[in-house]
Amino acid sequence: MGLLSIYFKPNFLGLLKCLNNLNWFIVFFSLINLSVCIYEDQIGKFDWRQTYVGRIKYSQFDTVSTAKKIIVATEENVLAALNLKTGQVVWRHVFESASAGNIQLLHVSDKVVTVTGSNPYLVRGWDSSTGVLIWEWSLTLQNDDQADFSEWWVQNNMLVHMLPMFGSHIEVSMYHLMTGQNRGATAKLPASWTNDGCVLAPPYYTCVSGEMKSQQLLSLDVTSNAVQLISRPLAEFVDLNSYDGSLRPVDGNSGLPAFIVDDKRIVMIKHNEFEVLKTAVFDPTGSVTLLDIANGPVVLQAWLDDTQGFSIQANSVSGAELPELRMADRDLKLPDPEISSAVCTKSAREQLVCRILVTGGDDSVHLMQQGGRVLWSREEALANVVAVEFVELPVSDLDAAIESEFDQKEAAKMYSSIWAAFSRRLQTQFQQLQTLVNSVQGEGAAQHQPLALVRDYFGLHKLIVLITDVGKIFGMDNLSGAILWQYYEPSLDTEGAVVFTRRTARHPPHDAYITIVGKHEETGNGLIISLNPITGTLIGERLLKLDVQLLQCTILHRPDNEKLHALILLDKDENVQVFPQSAAPLVENMFMYVADRSTARVQGYAIVYNGQSAIAVRTWLVRLGGGSQRIVLVQGKSATERVHSPGRVLPDRAVLYKYLNPNLVLVLTEGPDPLHKDVVVATCLDAASGAIVASQIHRRARALPLAVHSENYLAYLYYNDKHRRTEIATMELYEGKQRWTQAGAAFSSLATERAPGVERQAFIVPAAPAAAALTATERSLTDKHVLLALTSGAIVEVPWIYLEARRGGISEEGVVLPAYAPELPLPGDARLNYNLTVARPERIYAAPSGLESTSLVLTTGLDLFYTRVAPSKTFDVLKDDFDYYLITIVLAGLILATYSTKYFASRKMLKLAWK
Amino acid sequence: MKQLTSLLFTVCIFSYVQSAINLPEEDVGNGRYSIEGKVFPPEEQDLGPWQVDTRIHVNGGEYIGFIRDDGSFVIHNVPSGSYVVEILHPDYIYEPIRVEINSKGKYRARKVNYIQTSQVIQVPYPLRLKALSKFRYFQVREQWRLTDFLFNPMVIMMVLPLLFIMILPKMMNDPETKEDLKQISNLAKMSEMPEMSEMFTSLFSGGAAAKASSTSKAKQIKKRQ
């Protein structure tokens, strides 16, 4: 035998070696297989998309085609058709977000006609049922200065364009709607009475003109061949002493020429005469529209009454009220309602059937019918999300009870004797049993009920708080996308608003606590809203209007006795405010910086507690780019970030230590350069000491406000003007093969005199990115992938290994990194949102879930898209398609086989014994 | 060496000049132009109104075009410059095209090459765009196939011994094969193995000689090893 082993030994070792090599190959191939896409049958299992159109600018009911629709044109430059019954988008076209996409006119007859842009204009005709483009022609105005005052409407299949020259004349041109042929040249109507307060009620152009106290109300049909000026003294309509010169057209698009004088009287033009309606305006902030029903014109008014809530009232021209159209809804808190459009038809039984589309000041859209029933609502504020926060849900009451039972301090307080504790244990055990029985019983019934707002076992169920541009705050269930609560604050200006989770739901009996820091709409002063994110109710500081503008804000890293992280605000006078004030003594080791966007000047502050209050001390000042540059983006690290490993193992078993400075901030600046047109400078700045750690210049480039920054690496995007392509530059910072500090010691920005080594690389992005983010997991064990949202509507997941600055080299465990290739691969299976295109994406937010492998991702923009990603695949749970049936059947079969063979064996033995 | 560097230098300059030539006039002219083309629908026709789902983005959404019923599109009011025209369909891939309009209003369409930006592969203008293929968004689930199962080495390892165990005894029962087998075994015995009785007789009769032969045999085996 020994000889045999001698003979085999070298080969055996060789085999082992071979196997070892194979092992590397296996690791390598597992890395190559980086596709993390889902299976086709998982569509909609982890993700959802919500499509929005934006605040409605114009709308019109499409009553011609068979499928009833509402055609809307919005402030977000979107043309869409909404289903009349459900409010869902039937078709949608998203125009350019710049002024080239502004919708100037929406006209619905048998075709949908839009005028978009701002000199040059584009006139397009669409098929209202399918949304396909039918015709399109361009129109450029010679006079560019006044073009913004242009008015458009459609009359007798002609497109009318009116351009008033205030104080001199009106230019009126008519074009053939389909082809754009100009029927006759531009007509110039002399009108020295025009001013910028004039209103158009097609085809009449109405102005108030003349000396004070003797103003005239003038109106002109600009399309008629004969110039007929209607002129009446204004005193006939309103009291001139209280008149403040306001003239506004009625809302909606009834086609009846009417306007409102001084927010009081409604004046209609009939047979070239002014006709004052007997119905006065009920509420100057309300909305007034005229509606043409069978019996003649009807005045429809909507307003928000303090006592009766949202009200709608209809009066005929003679002043009589139409009681069937009266409605009041006390529960519907619709601020600043505006009747976008309304349509009424007579049913077979001579009853009025009305549909009224109402838009609120909070951008919500409601379709109502007569009697006040809301058929559907859309929250169009969500088309403009500015900030998002993922909030953990509280544990269920039962779990909370169990937790408190095992909490040492709590337990000592409550149970003096061992018997009390024992009885409590029995009690909770019984409760658990009860819930189990309930869940088994109610499984069928509970299918349709929404999930209770409690934390699930894997922490995948969270609540998303969305702050929208209009000042409306939403709480959304992340699994279903359902809106749980909403809070509207009209005075909140959310430009640059930030959200802080100041207390999670992990600390019962304290409620979760989030704070939104924004600006006041009018004054620009700080405005702080504190909410319980689970219920959407105000708590703590509630709604706090500060009397000073803010420079910077952050939260204290150390919680106070109530587990609340204090809010620290730095105001314009460089005073520090701490909320709650009792937390001021906790201020320690706090640093802040304020970057000025236009001058690229970054000022650093230290926040110090001096015994009575916290004060800000100026510590450092950096002028980036010598004054000619401007800041495009400042990207710090996530405050909650953890770093799993402090270094990377090289193939020679040495460790390359990462430069893990938590205060590191990436500042992207751009500016003109005499030699290279534009340059982009990326600077890594230590925000505590003001030291510049690394920098990189890109010549002939324009910066994009997109960057990711985590651990020891960062990536930012810029547009290379020379080669006309988008590029992504990455930087990795390393301390080197020796540690600067002891293992476990905290990093100090003030005690380092060495500069880290920087690895750099740049790659081509063969697309136009609109947003970038990194996936986030709880312990950062999992790989990090870069998520890029492209303007094409795709959200692409790029593994960091492709962006690694050390690409082409050998990483830890001898794994060969992919060789350097200049172009980043963006394959179809890297698309998170498969064929669910996300229109106009703006930001991506990623949040960790309770599972280490999984990260929750929300993309905002015109649409919302939520999904979850597992960058290193789901290594910690069974796959969701795990075949439980198969394994049960196999197990059962094996057990059955064991026992049956045992039986047969014993029989055989018996037979043998008898032989 | 010097020559080489100078050569390299000239090559660099040359390539730089070439790329400079290929760049369009940077200053934006007053003229507004329009980019025209036609998109051909994907092969499968059961897509419904594909015209609504298809959008045309110029320079990543700076200009947006829509296509008509017949697939033609026009993007109006574009100043002279260089543009990447992308056809976006949620399910089908179209190749992007770079369209360059110089200040005199001359058009040139070429393939997008982000790596070698100066390389020109012209394509006809007005653009004619066909869907390359369908996007592959999803992983394909592995399906259970009988052949996969049968050719699994584990299964083969299990099945083959089973075959030997089950079938060989059956074959033994067959008289003809039994005969054959016997013959084979007899043959084998005769050639290789000495008869047991023979061995014993030789052992007891001339032990020494036999021993010697056997040891030599063992040696031979050793050598062979």
From TrEMBL, chain A:
Record's subcellular location: Endoplasmic reticulum membrane
Domain ER membrane protein complex subunit 1 C-terminal span(s) in chain numbering: 710-914
Gene Ontology CC terms: EMC complex
Pfam families per the UniProt record, alphabetical: Beta-prop_EMC1_N (PF25293), EMC1_C (PF07774)
Domain EMC1 first beta-propeller positions: 38-147
Membrane topology: Single-pass type I membrane protein
Gene3D superfamilies found in the cross-reference section: YVTN repeat-like/Quinoprotein amine dehydrogenase
Transmembrane segments: 884-905
Main location: endoplasmic reticulum
Protein's GO biological process: protein folding in endoplasmic reticulum
Key words, A-Z: Endoplasmic reticulum, Glycoprotein, Membrane, Signal, Transmembrane, Transmembrane helix
Protein family: Belongs to the EMC1 family.
Subunit structure: Component of the ER membrane protein complex (EMC).
Name recorded for this polypeptide: ER membrane protein complex subunit 1
Gene from which the chain derives: HaOG217012
UniProtKB/TrEMBL annotation, chain B:
Entry's localization field: Membrane
Residue intervals of the ER membrane protein complex subunit 7 beta-sandwich domain: 49-157
Stretches of the chain forming a coiled coil according to its record: none
First and last residue of the signal peptide: 1-19
Alphabetically ordered keywords of this record: Membrane, Signal, Transmembrane, Transmembrane helix
Lipid bilayer topology: Single-pass membrane protein
Molecular functions per Gene Ontology: carbohydrate binding
TM region(s), chain numbering: 149-168
Pfam families to which the protein is assigned, alphabetical: EMC7_beta-sandw (PF09430)
Record's GO cellular component terms: EMC complex
Domain of life assignment: Eukaryota
Family per record: Belongs to the EMC7 family.
Protein name in the entry: ER membrane protein complex subunit 7 beta-sandwich domain-containing protein
Source organism of the structure: Helicoverpa armigera
The organism's taxonomic lineage, starting at the top: Eukaryota, Metazoa, Ecdysozoa, Arthropoda, Hexapoda
Name of encoding gene: HaOG210731
